[in-house]
Each structure stands twice: as structure tokens, then as C-alpha cells.
Amino acid sequence: MSDETAFADFVRQRGAALYRYGYLLTGSHHDADDLVQEALIRLRGKWQRLHTDDPIGYVRTTMARLHVSFWRRRKNRERPAASLPEVAVDDPGLASVDAEATQADALWAALATLPPRQRAVLVLRFYEQLTDAEIAETLHLTRGTIRGHASRGLEKLRSSHAVHHLAGVLS
Amino acid sequence: MTDLDLPDALRRRAAQAVAPPDNLAGIVEGRYRGRRRRRIGASVLATVGALAALTTAMAHLGGGRPDPAATPSPSPAVAQIMPPGGGPFPSAAELWPEIDITLPAQTPHDSAVDVIKSIDATHVLVSTLEPPGFYSYDVVRRTFQQLPFEHLDGNGLRVTPNYIYHAVRRPKPVLQVYRLPVHGGTVEQVAADLPYDRFARWYATDDAVYGSGPTGDGSWTYDIATGRTTAVAGVTVSGDPGQSVWRAERADQPRAGTGRGFNPPPTLALHNIVTGERRDVAQPPGVTEMECSPQLCVYLDPLSPKAPKRYYVQRLDGSGRTALPFANGLGIRAFPIGPLGLFLVGGHLYDPATGRAGSVGADRLACGMGYDGVRIEWLPDQNSPCREHVIWLIDRIR
């Protein structure tokens, strides 16, 4: 199998997962698209050496570092809204569902206020399920710094007015 | 309000991500080939590790090395940066035995200990998490002495020749700065209300606190004696957080046309937030891995992706390009040590000022590695050759 074919297979198998990960890192479909493509281009350049090793780890690390170092400079730029605010509907039967959805939206909004590193740490810890040591290596930081980012990030999520409780979280 | 499961909430949100385009592999392949043809890195991730933070302290404490922040010329002689032969090289731990920090089994409160940085030739700064605390660890006597800071924030420490500074954000958005003499004494508050938007990233000398904010509106000096805050002339960057008087400035270039795509490579420069000096950094085309000290850059040759790794060292202006005889992994890291900086490159710790280089060790190349600018750390892992917790405190090299 040629390098090009093997790489294309990898992209087909992993592309969707990488887009999901990129979306959580950036909060934007457009930025996720850019981020994934940039990381894959870099992987392509190292494919011969990495394809038998850990290409998904390389892409994940590249995306996290790019997000922190590159995307953070664009945070103040205007970007189109990812979704329009919905109009509230008065339906008691939907109250519990609405509460959960509202909380999830509030969490997403609070996540958007975090600095890129804090956001990356939370995504790597709670979505990618990496250990603090793995996150430290991914982001070139110490475990203590990772714990600090995680603690401050979680505290910000908790202290946001809409997100009062975070279950399943070990800070 | 019900509890919200964060991992589950993230998974649900992730499911809303758009699907990749059907021809994603083709798009990436085309862009990769186009980029190779142009040999232009569309988005250079040239991490400029701005160095020299602790060098003032090192020069005073160790008396051995000059302060690169005070070095007038950024152009060392080519002969200085020539590495030794082609190896094999001795172990870095044998070449610089002082960097290997072995902690005793008995730690304060039996807590896990983080090694932070050197205080002087025989003491290193460490912290504990439970309960939180800062300690001076005597590497000879292997004893801990607790430092009497009341408010603790593990990310807010700086060491100068005579003081350990500690900053806390309390109350937000104000930075309070305290300091303690390195050889003992009492903690004094030197600043009570530094605005966080100017001092979010900070650096200290014996006489002043220097800061820059998250919004990139320049650098600021807080004079401890007078209590006055003034702007540092000529410095307009906020730069990287960390331990250095040097801040990396990355300026985006305008994107050509209106179509989607990536910005062209940013220009790179180093700013000294104390003196205002600016040093431009020349980027070799297509480079994706590069680390710089205030005098030199080390980078991975971008033109041979299928060949063995080839690293080069050169001056900031791009002159004096010299191949390094290292080819292993671990990428490149830079450390704020010595007149030219130290580099971890190709599995070797390399001092351009002396030409000395030591191997990290083949086993460790397969182990998870942590790095923070003054130290390297390997954690024990049953799935790798690493069975012991190893900490190298690179700023102990004098």
C-alpha cells in the first residue's frame, strides 16, 4: 500500500473523530475545519515515519498545540455565530429536557470564555480522557501547570451563573 | 438544576460537529503537495522559546556565566556554535550530574512534590499539592524547609539573585506580589494592586516587576522602591508567559485575496521587556519546528521529510547555519541557561556556548516527557522503559 493510499485510509477512518475533537477545542466549525486540515497536512509530511507509530497521537498533539499557539491570536476577531439563539417555548412537559439543554448551552458558552490552554486541558482530560501526564506532554507543560489550568477552568465553569453543578468531575 | 456530567456534555456537543468533506484526504494531499512545491510553511509553528530569565540570577549566584540579557551582541562567533564531532556522546546525566534531582522517599506530609526551579547551587524550589506549600529543598542534605508564603499559586514564582517572588491574583483582577529573601527572612508585600491586564505575565528583578497583559498593549515596569508603574519604551508585545525578560512577538501577515485558507507565516522577533531591545528572527522556509534563545535558533530541516532527522543551529539573523550531529527524536526544546541558551535537540542536551553535548539515553526516547523551560521530567510508566520518576533541573548547569 502506498503512503498516499495508507494516509487516505487513515483520514477516512479518523476524519470524523478529529472534526469532533477540533470542534470542542475551537468552538467553531470553521476553525475546526482549518485546524484538522492543518494538522493532517503536517502528519502527511511525517507519514512514512509515523504511520506505524502513533499517528492519531501526533494529530491530537498537533491540534492542541496549534489551537493554543495559533488560534488564540484570532480570538478577538469577528466570526459568524455558530448558531442562532432560539426562542423560548412555554411547554411544561419539556421543562426537564429544556433545563438540561439550557445547562449544556450554558456550559458551551462558559467553555468559550476560557483561555485556549484551559479549554484544551479540559477537552483533553474530559473528552479525550488523557491523564494529566499525557496532557502535560501534549501541551509541553508540567503536570502542576496542567492541574492548575484544569482547576481554574473548572472553577470558571462552576462560577458561571448558568452552570451550578458539574457531575462526574474530579478536579 | 440538575447536575451536568461534563464528559457526557462534551460528547453530546462534539456530536454536533460537522462531518468532514467527502474528499478530505484528497484536499489534504493536494494542499500538502502544493506546500512542498512552494516550500512555504503556510502556518509556521516556529515556537520561539524566549530565554534568559534566570540567567541574571545564575550569573550572580553561580558566578560562572554572563547574563545574556546584558549581552550587547546577538551574534556569537560561528566557532562558538559548532558542536563536537559526530558522537557518540556521553550521557547528559554524567556530563552534568548536578541536573539529576532525586527526591527522598519522605516528603512533607507525604505529598507528591513538584520540582520548580533552582534557588542557588544547593537549593531548589519545590511545591506540594496536598496541603499546598512551597519548600526549599536542600539537594545535599536532602531536607525540606517550608517557605512562609501565605497565599499560594503554583504558577506565580520567580527567582532573582536575592529574592523569591510570588504573585497571587487576590482579589481579581489585581495582582499582589510578595517576596522572600533567598537565604531566609520574612515575606514582604512589594505590590498590592498591580492591574492584571498589565501584569498577567510577569517577570521580576531585585528592584522591579515587569509585566505584560493578555491584550498585547505593551510591557510595564513597576518600580518597587517608588511604587510607580511606567510603560517600557518600544515594547508593544504581550508575548509568552514565563520566566524570561525576552518575549516572542509573532506578527500576522495580511492574507492575500479573500478566499479561505491560512495566513502566511508570521514574522518573528524577540523583545526584551526590560531594555526594549528587539531582535528579529529569520525563519528558514517551511520550518515547522524551531526554538530560539536570544542569540541562536535550532530547527528541524523541513526539506527532507523522508530522510533521517537533520537539525541545524544558526544565529537569529539566519547566518552561521551549522548542521548538528543529532538525529534522534524528542524534537527541540530550549532552556534559559547560559550565554547562548541550552537546547534539547535530537535526543541530546546541547550547550552551544561550550560545544558540549550529552545523550538523553535511548530508553528515554520511548518515555513520556514533560518540559517547562527549566526542567525535563520523565514519569514512571509500566508500558515503557521508564520505571523511575526522573527529574532533570537544567537550570542547575552553571
Task: Summarize it.
Chain A has helices spanning 3-26, 29-45, 47-50, 55-69, 95-112, 116-126, 132-139, 143-159; one strand spanning 166-167.
List keywords for this structure.
heterodimer, A: 171 residues, mainly alpha, Arc Repressor Mutant, subunit A, 2 domains, 1% strand, globular, disordered C terminus, B: 398 residues, 4-stranded antiparallel beta sheet, 6 helices
Q: How would you describe the overall organization of this protein?
A:
The complex is a heterodimer of chains A (171) and B (398). With 171 residues, chain A is mainly α. Chain A contains eight helices and one strand, in the order ααααααααβ. The longest helix of chain A is centred in the N-terminal third of the chain and has 24 residues, at 3-26. Helices cover 11% and strands 32% of the residues of chain B. Chain B has six helices and 28 strands. Chain B has helices at 6-14, 24-38, 55-62, 78-81, 92-95, 196-199; strands at 4-5, 100-101, 113-118, 123-128, 133-138, 143-146, 157-159, 163-169, 174-181, 188-195, 201-204, 208-212, 219-223, 229-231, 246-251, 267-272, 278-281, 290-292, 296-300, 311-315, 322-324, 332-335, 342-345, 348-351, 356-359, 369-371, 375-378, 390-393. A four-stranded antiparallel beta sheet of chain B has the order 2-28-27-26, with no helix packed on it. In chain B, strands 3-4-5-6 form a four-stranded antiparallel beta sheet, with no helix packed on it. The chains are: A mainly alpha (171), B mainly beta (398). At the A-B interface, α1, α2, α4, α5 and α6 of A face β1, α1, α2 and β26 of B.
